[in-house]
């Protein structure tokens, strides 16, 4: 069975918007992130498990609100007290998670097919988010994440890199069409390259 | 537009929250005789104070946690926010 990505019908590749007389190499780049495993890890209240003993590729679970960690292939986001989201391009990551997490300590939910993710990269990426979200991004740095709203759609925003500025923005798959439209519509005035 | 300090996430816009009602209402004790009047009071009747009011809010587009907010209904000043287990 072939996989159909959430934005396969919406995300038209190519140059869009106001990009006249602009260096195409420096244009805002928008990419759908596909073929990624997404797991929600929720620690039970009664559990005494020390989360410092848990790590994936040597990355530990962030213990403070608004923090994320990881690299290009793995992101671990703090979602709520004792709740984390793990995104990985490793198809076998669940085996590593289950090896370290007992059923009595954690609820693990596979959300891989229920989210649409857009990567927005470029110096205008901050402005794209500011145009649709009330989140205060003044102190937002690399490896910061937050759940917020974007034009009324609940999204999870993760700053993956600060040079170049790169955000992963994740929304429910059922909102994928509106979410993609909101992001690309906000990007038109800057011009963007859909890759 | 209110700016509400979620005890877990910090200051966020009211857009991310949902109001959850009066935080002072207590459910009648289980396994006790409850009069119709007490049920009415619990289910339907609410005070509408002018001044400080303890409310429940849900950070529905954020960490999805419930918490309490002490808010002045006349000025909309938020005096204090706290976790569910805490009291003002």
Descriptors:
heterodimer, A: 195 residues, mainly beta, Gyrase A, domain 2, Alpha-Beta Plaits, 2 domains, seven-stranded mixed sheet, five-stranded antiparallel sheet, 3 helices, 13% helix, 38% strand, elongated, B: 88 residues, four-stranded antiparallel sheet, two-stranded antiparallel ribbon, 1 helix, 6 strands, globular
Give the gist of this structure.
By secondary structure, chain A is mostly beta strands. Chain A has helices at 93-100, 125-130, 176-187, and strands at 14-16, 28-32, 37-43, 55-56, 59-60, 68-70, 74-80, 83-88, 106-110, 115-121, 145-150, 153-162, 165-172, 192-194.
Explain what this protein looks like in three dimensions.
The complex is a heterodimer of chains A (195) and B (88). With 195 residues, chain A is mainly β. Chain A folds into two domains: 14-34 and 114-194, Probable tRNA modification gtpase trme, domain 1 (Gyrase A, domain 2); 37-110, Heterotetrameric sarcosine oxidase (Alpha-Beta Plaits, 2-Layer Sandwich). Chain A has helices spanning 93-100, 125-130, 176-187, and strands at 14-16, 28-32, 37-43, 55-56, 59-60, 68-70, 74-80, 83-88, 106-110, 115-121, 145-150, 153-162, 165-172, 192-194. In chain A, strand 6 (68-70) and strand 7 (74-80) form a beta hairpin. Chain B is 9% helix and 38% strand. Chain B has one helix spanning 36-43; strands at 3-6, 10-13, 18-22, 52-58, 66-72, 78-83. In chain B, strands 3-4-5-6 form a four-stranded antiparallel beta sheet, with no helix packed on it. The longest helix of chain B has 8 residues, at 36-43. Chain B starts with a strand and ends in a 5-residue tail after the last strand.
Helix content of chain A: 10-25%
Along the chain, the helix and strand elements of chain B come as EEEHEEE
Shape of chain B: globular
Order of helices and strands of chain A: EEEEEEEEHEEHEEEHE
């Amino acid at each position: 069975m072939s996989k159909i990505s959430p934005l396969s019908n919406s995300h038209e590749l190519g140059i869009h918007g106001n990009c006249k007389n602009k260096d195409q190499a420096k244009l805002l780049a928008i990419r759908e992130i596909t073929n990624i495993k997404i797991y929600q890890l929720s620690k039970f209240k009664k559990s005494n498990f020390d989360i410092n003993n848990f790590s994936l590729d040597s990355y530990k679970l962030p213990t403070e609100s608004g923090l994320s960690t990881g690299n290009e292939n793995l992101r671990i986001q703090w979602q709520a007290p004792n709740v984390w989201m793990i995104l990985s391009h490793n198809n076998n990551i669940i085996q590593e998670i289950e090896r370290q997490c007992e059923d009595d300590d954690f609820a693990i939910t596979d959300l891989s097919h229920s989210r649409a993710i857009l990567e927005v990269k470029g110096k205008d990426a901050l402005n794209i988010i500011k145009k649709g979200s009330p989140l205060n991004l003044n102190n937002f740095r690399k490896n910061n994440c937050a759940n917020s709203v974007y034009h009324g759609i609940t999204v999870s925003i993760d700053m993956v890199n600060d040079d170049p500025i790169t955000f992963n923005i994740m929304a429910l798959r059922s909102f994928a069409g509106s979410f993609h439209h909101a992001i690309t519509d906000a990007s038109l005035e800057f011009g963007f390259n859909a890759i | 537009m209110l700016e509400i300090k979620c005890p877990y996430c910090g200051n966020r816009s009211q857009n991310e929250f949902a109001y959850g009602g009066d935080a002072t209402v207590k459910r009648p004790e289980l396994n006790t005789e409850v009069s119709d009047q007490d049920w009415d009071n619990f289910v339907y009747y609410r005070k509408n104070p002018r001044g400080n009011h303890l409310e429940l809010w849900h950070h529905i587009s954020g960490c999805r946690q419930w918490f309490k907010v002490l808010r002045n209904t006349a000025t909309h000043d938020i005096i204090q926010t706290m976790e569910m287990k805490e009291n003002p």
